[in-house]
Amino acid sequence: MKEMEINEKALLAEDGGGKAAQTGWSAEVRRAAVAPMTGKTSTTWKLIVAVCSLFVLAGIGTWLYQLKHGLGAAGYNDQAFWAVYIVDVIAFIGVSYGGAVISAILRLTGQSWRAPLTRLAEGTALVTVAIGALYIFPHLGRPERFWEIVVFVNTSSPLFWDFIAIGTYVLATVIFFYLPLVPDMAIVNRMLGKKNRPIQYKVYNLLSLKWLGTEKQRRLLHGAMSLVALIIVPLAVSVHSVLSWAFATTSRPGWMETVFPPYFVVAALYSGTALVIVVASAFRKGYHLEKYIHTRHFVRLGYVMAAMGLVYAYLTLADLLSEGYTGITSGWIYQTVLGRWAIPFWFYVVVGEVMPIALVAVKRTRNIKGMTIASLGVVISLWIKRIVIVLPPVTQPLIGNQWGTYHFTWVSVTITLAGVAAIPLGLMLLFRVLPVLSIDEMEEMGEIGSTEQISEFTAAAEKRLAVGATNGNGHANGNVNGHSNGDAVPVTQGEVQ
Amino acid sequence: MRKVSQKKSSSDELSVISEESCGCSVDGQSCTITSMVEAGEPAASDDKEFSRRRFLSLLGAAAGAAAVIGSGIELLSYRAYAQGLPQTNGWTGNSGVTGSGAATMASSEAPPTHQWAMVIDLSMCNGCKSCTAACQKAHYLTPDQTWIDVFTLTDAEGKTYPMPRPCMQCENPPCLHVCPVHATFRQDQGVVLVDQERCIGCRMCMAACPYQARYFNWNSNVQYPKLSVPPSPEMPVPQRLGTVGKCTFCVGNLNNGLLSECAAGCPMGAIYNGDLKTDVAVNSLGSTVKLSSFLYDNNAVTFKPEQNTHPRVWYIQGDGQDLNDNKASQSS
Question: B179 — contact with chain A (CB < 8 Å)?
Fold first, then answer.
């Protein structure tokens, strides 16, 4: 990408920038948010993108191989007819749920501290929902006939409603991601100008809907954002309930569970919050957002995650106990808890429940590092937990006692890893063309309000732990190191690493 | 082999124009022996000549008798008995549309002559799996694709016994209800079939089937011989990769007056092909029975009646055998 310069005049918030307007802090926010879009990319950035692209390409190639050779190449058989790919669908759409709902709920409840996180959370939601929806294609035996679902509609099929639910949710996620971008696109265009990016300029101009930040525009935008935030919460609940009903409407013991809809919804929230923490942690470091994303953000998200984790543990117990106690259909329960699936199940219990909740509970580990480790554990073990939800009931014999088996093959592993690699790749490419911070929102929430909250809640902790280069008071002084004073400077300090 | 062409109408209903190669007269009760024999002749192969002729003549004779005697016999009453279900439970038990949005095959002709069924006499089965082998040979199935599989269950004394399981051809088929594209349909003779030209391979039907009776085409390395007839839902050979397949009841055989491959291949005569309309069932040993009284007298049961699927396959249980005893199929 060609080198771009920041128009220094555009660093100042123009009008309704709220409390932060005219302060140097606003200029800093803008600089930090736009920095990854300009200038050269660092070697690290290029390396990560290259490696992730390789994984994604390998996944696509493997999928073509699978198309030619059949799903048997992915380890599937008649007694393990649903396995890795449906787990990928659930897991990826699940983590997307977290990003969307966290952002929506924080918005609805007027939590001003959310501002630096929303773009990252919504971006994560967008990228992961796209990946999750795409996993339907390797899941299908004949993906080229997918269009038939729309043409030969069968409203009594759970899969038709899956299609409707996922489709609506993808649309809502796109809108939810787009709305806060409207003012940001205008800001970006003002900052980066037309030079060197004529096409991008035109597109952004179009998407910014002639945003000027007038009172009326602001009112309209807020109304729309509140509405979409309000819609996306029940919508996300419905998506995961409907996904779970693809299992729960069959007569298979272990799937036909009344607990499944909330079970899936909470799992999605749990893993989704965790992924937001992981993404925030990675981008905070890589994109130099230490000034805006603080320990308190991680701790608060950590609290949400721990709460979800406890609910999920409760639902897991509720699922296993009632049937396991009577023993009527306990074949799959035995195999899950003590039998062939015991290792992945107990891995989930330790790494996906005990470890993260302990890390949140203990004060010493209630910091960025601790939360990130906890979240990584949750994200990984919740994928494994989904495997444990899907495979024991599917391999359980419905007649006789011949258990089925599923073996992971290089095909299913490669295709799954492609999705994992697509998350950082998608986010890094996304924030190469869009600001990584929600500029307008941050300006509206204001610097002063934010810093006050920082000192109120975690300033003490931050001081004690000396986390990050700056603490909450660092920019309360309006100390912006004269960035906004000079002429247009090539953004070298904004290099992405 | 019947030719089946499907017309997809906008109301998502499969209407099928079937050219009956069998020129039998349709009077709702019986076929004349001669017309069926004539019609069935070209499709006959030498090794099946004997049983086929017997089957046909006996079927015709018994049907004729049934038409005379059994004008007052309520077809549904014994079936309700055999299913152990009171008729007042809202289930009509008829061969019509099953559930909203269900695809059916509506014949362009008069009401169907036959409603195919099956009886499996567990007391006769010795577990030799000849049925599985015959089925796999006829349909060019892979070893994994056991459209009729023989499971091992345990009786009251703890002894094991073999239990053949074809597709139950449910009158209320869960696989049909969950198919998102109507690839699974129930034709007018009550046989549940899969249109492999439409199936998207989502395997929701495999999840829904309580009998584990559906088999996917997982691998592309299956060798099929060159066949003169193109694949059809009734005879899906060669099968399409990435679609689901299952027992077709050999409905093509039945309509040509032949036994299904599994029934013909059973050396014990444990599998009977039956017709609810003519109230006759025949096995490979040539013994012909009046279906309704055969089921009634032997306390025939359907498999997993609690699933509310209303199978068209009945089981006659031997001493101490209880198909629907949870512990028998309990796994640990």
Answer: yes
CA atoms within 13 A on the CB side of B331: 20
CA atoms within 13 A on the CB side of A218: 12
Quick one: pLDDT at residue B85?
Answer: 38
For chain A, domain boundaries: 8-465
Are residues B206 and A400, on separate chains, in Cβ contact within 8 Å? Answer: no
Contacts of A81 in chain B (CB under 8 A): 203, 206-207, 216
Cβ of B219 and A163 within 8 Å? no
Residue B23: the pLDDT is 36
Q: Round to whole Å and give the CA distance between B324 and A27.
A: 74
What distance in Å separates residue A317's CA from the closest CA in chain B?
A: 20
Predicted pLDDT of residue A29: 85
Of B102, B216, B221, the CB nearest to A141: B216
Q: Note whether B228 contacts A: Cβ–Cβ < 8 A.
A: no
User: Phi and psi for A343 in degrees, rounded to 5?
Assistant: -65, -55
Please tell me which of the candidates B8, B204, B332 has its beta carbon nearest to residue A159: B204
Query: Residue A396 is nearest to which of B151, B326, B331, comparing CB atoms?
Result: B331
* Residue A334 at interface with chain B, using a CB cutoff of 8 Å: yes
Burial bucket for residue B272 (CB in 10 Å: 0-12, 13-18, 19+): buried
Residues 6+ apart with CB under 8 A from B236: B139, B194, B196, B245, B248
- CB contact at 8 A, A297 and A113: yes
| Poorest-pLDDT segment among A364-378, B6-20, B146-160, B315-329 | B6-20
Over 70: is that where the pLDDT of B283 sits?
Answer: yes
B279 or A458, which is more confident?
B279
Stretches in chain A below the pLDDT threshold 50: 1-2, 15-22, 448-449, 451-458, 463, 466-497
A 10 A CB-CB count for B18 gives 20
Asked if the C-beta of A145 comes within 8 angstroms of chain B's C-beta atoms, the answer is: yes
* B99 chain-A contacts, CB cut-off 8 A: 156
Q: Which of residues 250-279 of B touch A (CB under 8 A)?
A: none
Domain A8-465 falls in which CATH fold?
Answer: Formate dehydrogenase/DMSO reductase fold (1.20.1630)
pTM of the model: 0.80
Domain ranges of chain B: 3-316
**A188-219: string of b/e by CB count within 10 Å (b at 16+)?**
bbbbbbeeebeebbeebeeebeebebeeebbe
CA distance A354 to A347: 10
- Which of B148, B197, B202 is the best mutation test for A, with the most CBs of A within 10 A? B202
Closest chain B residue to A85, measured at CA: B202
Least confident range from A123-127, A267-271, B8-12, B289-293: namely B8-12
pLDDT in tens, B219-274: 998 888 888 889 999 999 999 999 999 999 999 999 999 999 999 999 999 999 99
Record: fold of B3-316: Alpha-Beta Plaits (3.30.70)
- Among A150-159, A361-370, B70-79, B309-318, which stretch is predicted with the lowest mean pLDDT? B70-79
Q: Does B249 touch chain A (CB under 8 A)?
A: no
Q: What is the pLDDT of residue B60?
A: 54
Please report the pLDDT score of residue A113 as a whole number. Answer: 85
